[in-house]
User: Fold Major facilitator superfamily (MFS) profile domain-containing protein from Marasmius oreades.
Amino acid sequence: MPSSEPFEVEFVSPIQTTFVDPVREDQIFNQSEKKKKKHAKGNSDETVTSVVIRDVEEGYKEEDQGVKVVSFTPGTGENPKEWGKAKKWYITITVSFLCLAVTLGSSTVTGDMTGPTKEFGTSQEIINLTITCFVIGFGIGPLIFAPLSELVGRTPMYLVSMFFYCIFTLPSALAHNAATLVIARQIAGLAASAPMCNVGGSIADIWSVEERGIPMAFFSFTIFMGPCLGPVMGGWIGERAGWRWLYWVLFIFSGFCFVLTLFLPETLAPVVLRRKAAKLRKETGDSSYRTVEEIEGKPFMQNLRVALSRPLIMLFTEPIVIMFSIYLSFVYALLYLMFFAFPIAFAEIRHFSGGMTGVTFVSIIIGIGIAMCLLPFNEKIYAALTKKGTYPEARLYGMMLGAIVLPISLFMFAFTGAFARIHWIAPLISGAVFGFSMIVIYVSANSYIVDSYSAYAASAIAAKTLLRSEIAAMVPLFVDQMFHGMGFQYAGLLLALVAVAIGPIPYVFFIYGERIRKRSVMATQAVRRR
Assistant:
């Protein structure tokens, strides 16, 4: 209601409406908090409800005069970025655990690919589609889940995703033909994709830029740990219990993860504010309590159309998203390629059993573990470099190191895995080096993308996930023919040369990244929206 007396009007919200340089993105939040605290000291009655009454403010229609703009009350823990570290880590670990669950689903089935081939009397190529279709779903799903999460919240997307992932894993365990198996895997992969694209957004919701490095590293760790643990588990389960138990284990595990999502709080600030405004309207009967987005009054369907198109627009118009998606797609495809290259190197060439072949993937896990141990030192370097202000390019040091180490690991694998006379430890060492390079590249690149696009991090990651997953999905269709047709050594050499060719990408963005971001519409919008 309009006031009869003039008063000072101050509008504060976590959704920024004035342009700021992306480099200073997290300073916005701090400045906003200071403004709110200063305002609260002189207006204690307004602080109680965390509402600022707008009399007349430029840019709004006359019918919006007197609207009560709902914002966060400083120090109350309403703002997700003000939550305690214990709560933040609970959320980070839980949502990352969801990523572990769904990525396990992509690789555990490699533990026994011959079982369904023999039972259904079909070809190996058809059964390989159980991986291809699942990973294709990983790529398509984020185009829906990521934009919707930015409109309705993160938690509803996790709930829907894990519920249907669990439900559509069951038909695979009960399948009586290859068609049922492949179709169920396609739908399960589609359903399972929400954690892959939304966890980065959830982390950006609750952690400041300075604190975000280790949580992002943990998230990236689970993304790659799942595919690496899958063959280790699957090899022994398939050998001892049969191929159907691979799917029963995934069904039980996904059901447990669905239960975990029931206890996740919402982290997206605009959604939290909308719920607060709705609660105030209900409790007071006063319909003037509204959020900034509600005042702007854009129809939901209009917002939905924009949000659904955003990942594709970013994939084709944003240089950062385009180039980093290409690089990460290659790295992710290499991981899925190893699911088939390791059995060739160890089962075919060195005659390891199925269970022992699965154990060889522990070498990649060791490399990932070494990288994770070194990441805290990387965070200290980042903190030292950003004392005077954060900037996303400071995240790229790990990726620049990985760009050098990755081709070295592939050269090693090509020239040691191909020959039985070379001790089996040699290709395992190359696997560890590959695991190390993979995680430092992915953690660094993911952090750079999230820092660059902030509020639209989920859409940026969805765009990256789309390309990455579609390329990785093609690997099972040609990898056997590639390694047997070209020869193990030359196929590995080709991959190493590709890694050398794309290696300069992080160096280019380290030098020119700030200039590129300043010309980006999406990057600046992302900062303005926070």
